[in-house]
Amino acid sequence: MREDIISFLKKDVKEKCESSNNFFGIGIYYHIKAVVKNAVLLAEKYGGDTEVVTIAAWLHDFASITNYEYYDEHHVWGTKMAGEVLQRMDYPIEKTELVQKCILNHRGSVIQDKCTAEEICVADADAISHFDSIPSLFYLAYVKRDYSIEDGIDFVANKLKRSFNKLSDKSKVIYQEKYASALNSIYGK
Ligand SMILES: [Fe+2]
Ligand SMILES: [Fe+2]
Description:
- There is one protein chain.
- By secondary structure, the protein is mainly α.
- It has a single domain (about 5-185), classed as Hypothetical protein af1432, CATH 1.10.3210.10.
- The protein is built from ten helices and no strands.
- The radius of gyration is 17 Å and the shape is globular.
- About 35% of the residues are buried.
- One fe (ii) ion binds near residues 60, 61, 74 and 107.
């Protein structure tokens, strides 16, 4: 494990998230942390390289937190930026390329073929991260968007449904129970 790179990224990503230049607010830091956690968990199950997946998860939204203008194409900008950061830190080129593939293909909304186990781990972890931050979704619904109780419930449930549907088939099996219990608690069942 390249602990030097990982501890640098933890600190740098946190600082970028806390900066006033970060359009998304501190919530995106908790999102990124949840992506790291779930990506490592999936890497252990799918035989992905844990180091590659950890570095890619810390960097997957790097472009978005650096400059909001990059948001629409943040998978492309992030790929470029990750290459620069990792080259500076002498990370091997083959592993850097694996990290870059994970970043380029992490978005469920941008349909691309995911070939490596590491790409699937990061993309699925990104989709599932909402399940670890349900209170933030309610905060968004009731505080930021001022929704009624019912509209807030639908908003949160729809977000979770969309996230679940983006998962690979094998991750759907793993997260099925978590999904069902989240929906049950939201609908008060
Ligand atoms: Fe993203
Ligand atoms: Fe993300």
